[in-house]
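**Fold tokens**
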Amino acid sequence: MDVGGTCTDGVLVEDKSGEIVRKAKVRTVKGDVAGSVMRCYSALHVPSPAILSNFCVSTTLATNAMVEGTEKDVCAISIGLTPSRSVDYASETLVIAGRHDPMGEETCPVDMDTLRSKLNGTRMRSFAVSGYFGSRNPEHEKLVAEEVIRMLPGATVVRGSDLAGTLGAEERLFLAAKNAELMHLMSAFIEGIEDATGVPDTITYALRGDGTLVSTEEARLRPIFTVLSGPAASAMGATALAGTRDALVIDIGGTTTDVAVVRKGRVRIASEGARVGGSRLRTGSLDLRTIALGGDTEIFCEDGRAMLGSRAVQPLCLAPDANAMLRDRSFLYQDNERTVGITPTDLFRDQGKSDFGDAAIARAALEALARVCERPIASLRADIEEMIRARLLRVVLSAALGKDLPEGSDDLIKGGGLLSTKFTIALPIVGIGAPVRNFLDLIAERVCSEIIIPHDHDVGNAVGAVSTGVYGRKDVIVRSEVKYVDGDEERFFHVTTEEGCGSSATRTRPSPSPPT
């Protein structure tokens, strides 16, 4: 099941064959996630939870909370460093002394007296803790967390070193604060699923942003890792439906187009971390390229030219009061207060490529736009198609390269004059999402790659949640340092993990040639 912001999709899949037995799609009601899950589950007609071997869920819950912002009801405790932007993610900040050096050796003990004094004056019950070089030695973070729980029984405490082993004390503090916020949301979400379906948590799994599954217990403790699980589900579902382990996946919805790369059955991970809601998360999420392009993207007239905007509006051909809007012509111009307008959905309906909406309304809207732009209707359609094509090609090429395209590359993408450009992508393109076929038809002649639009692509996210698996990975870092002990040279080896599991040190007598 995929619980999205707009729809909740579900599939019942036969375990051995992978065949989709039934599928369902219901509207997600904001504030009633449990009810949305219940309606989708009921529509699948599962005879009994006992027949299920796995119940796998992806959700935009954590992603939306990151993008929309939350109450920031977290106290950030920083050890050995004054944060520069804690006001952006915490409602209260406590700074106490304490430091380790890059090798994990203590250079300044943690100031527990100051901590106790400051905790006596706080009303917060969620805490984030990060220490200076805490990823090299988390001992200070552990001492602080234990003291918080001792003084405030029942408090939620998240240590930055438990989430990431990367350097950057404030980055880990930010991660810990966001994780602390999301823990309550995720716990309520999981409990709502269990209450609505009766499925035991022993067979329930949540999808992470890297396309792998974790237990509900792990999801409750580290919900930050479920950020971008929706797009990850899309990527995994697309390849599963297409029967391939390698693909460039294009997921086109109403508002955005998401593009990801899957190699050997695993999504490509963003090396520098994914950027969500203006913040970079170093949590091993998929490398996702997103643009404002979908079936509901606004099309309007500006300075006598048709323009493709970035806002999503209701397609005019689906609006209940479309005839009244056609008369007042307000839909022809950009207005951030307007919620209905011309969209690609209207274009495709006018061209007979879609049966979604009222064809007469779509035709009248396009003809009105052609008149104000002083363009023949055929030329207007071609103009809009070229704008859609250029925007879609840009994000596809960016995903294929694994980096943003430089400024000024639009002319190269579009071609023109004596230049005709075609792009070879060394992976099949797999498209999912309700309007994907009409969009990909626009770039079919510009890319030298197989384009696959699989059956059941409209529930690709739900398929992705159930078609992946549980994976484990641990990165271990070994560092050596030469020190003099009682006048003798000795080499110390420090071992840490990228998952922040701690630090240890051993020492040996120097060998004739230092290890590399």
In short: The longest strand covers residues 476-485. The radius of gyration is 27 Å.
